[in-house]
Amino acid sequence: KCAQCDYTTNYKSSLKSHMWAHMEDFKCLKCDYETNNSNSYKSHLITHKTSKCIKCPQCDYTTNNNACFKSHLLAHRNSKDLRCAQCDYATNYKSNLRSHMLIHKTSKDFKCAQCNYATKYKTSLKTHMLAHRTFKEFKCVQCAYATNNSGCLKKHVVTHKTFKDIKCSQCDFATNYKFSLKMHMLTHKTSKDFKCVECDYATNNNTCFKNHLLTHRTSKDIKC
């Protein structure tokens, strides 16, 4: 049990992770932002910078984040060095290749200990496990919304914002969601990275690509 609130768990690691919620060591001097994670604090400070010091020499892209800049440079590469050993898929991003490789897996290695749920994805299992919890530890300070998923809380908090501060560098598109901007940026791409090996279908959207692959399957795994 947590000594500072009603949170209870059967796992020491979960309690240890929960205790971070009561610690607020890093406080922003320009706003009310507080965190116990030094990396999150550094990333937050960048949001207060008006000038972007890192500029792409090949296009108008600018950023204050070195990791984002390195990732952006890969978009200018003509060759794709990371290749799938089982098909013609190629990419410059390790994360994309890892996600792609799961398509070739038939076994579902991540299984729920409380029900029959099984998945190929570790993150999907973590999200599923939250469904078995009755206590909701992430609560919105502006309304009665509560959840067990920190990501869901972050998305919810954005609904209280009146302005859109994430903007496209190539058009007037603006949003409060990084994922929405990422999906929007695909509309500016001319090349399509996800190509089907069984037909001519190609897309820039990984989710659409996965859904398309299902059309080639003869067996139907989901039954009434």
From TrEMBL:
<keyword id="KW-0479">Metal-binding</keyword>
<dbReference type="InterPro" id="IPR013087">
    <property type="entry name" value="Znf_C2H2_type"/>
</dbReference>
<keyword id="KW-0539">Nucleus</keyword>
<dbReference type="GO" id="GO:0000978">
    <property type="term" value="F:RNA polymerase II cis-regulatory region sequence-specific DNA binding"/>
</dbReference>
<dbReference type="GO" id="GO:0003700">
    <property type="term" value="F:DNA-binding transcription factor activity"/>
</dbReference>
<keyword id="KW-0862">Zinc</keyword>
<keyword id="KW-0238">DNA-binding</keyword>
<keyword id="KW-0863">Zinc-finger</keyword>
<keyword id="KW-0677">Repeat</keyword>
<dbReference type="Pfam" id="PF00096">
    <property type="entry name" value="zf-C2H2"/>
</dbReference>
<feature type="domain" description="C2H2-type">
    <location>
        <begin position="82"/>
        <end position="109"/>
    </location>
</feature>
<feature type="domain" description="C2H2-type">
    <location>
        <begin position="138"/>
        <end position="165"/>
    </location>
</feature>
<feature type="domain" description="C2H2-type">
    <location>
        <begin position="166"/>
        <end position="193"/>
    </location>
</feature>
<dbReference type="Pfam" id="PF13909">
    <property type="entry name" value="zf-H2C2_5"/>
</dbReference>
<dbReference type="GO" id="GO:0008270">
    <property type="term" value="F:zinc ion binding"/>
</dbReference>
<dbReference type="GO" id="GO:0005634">
    <property type="term" value="C:nucleus"/>
</dbReference>
<protein>
    <recommendedName>
        <fullName>C2H2-type domain-containing protein</fullName>
    </recommendedName>
</protein>
<dbReference type="InterPro" id="IPR036236">
    <property type="entry name" value="Znf_C2H2_sf"/>
</dbReference>
<feature type="domain" description="C2H2-type">
    <location>
        <begin position="110"/>
        <end position="137"/>
    </location>
</feature>
<feature type="domain" description="C2H2-type">
    <location>
        <begin position="194"/>
        <end position="221"/>
    </location>
</feature>
<dbReference type="InterPro" id="IPR050589">
    <property type="entry name" value="Ikaros_C2H2-ZF"/>
</dbReference>
<dbReference type="GO" id="GO:0006357">
    <property type="term" value="P:regulation of transcription by RNA polymerase II"/>
</dbReference>
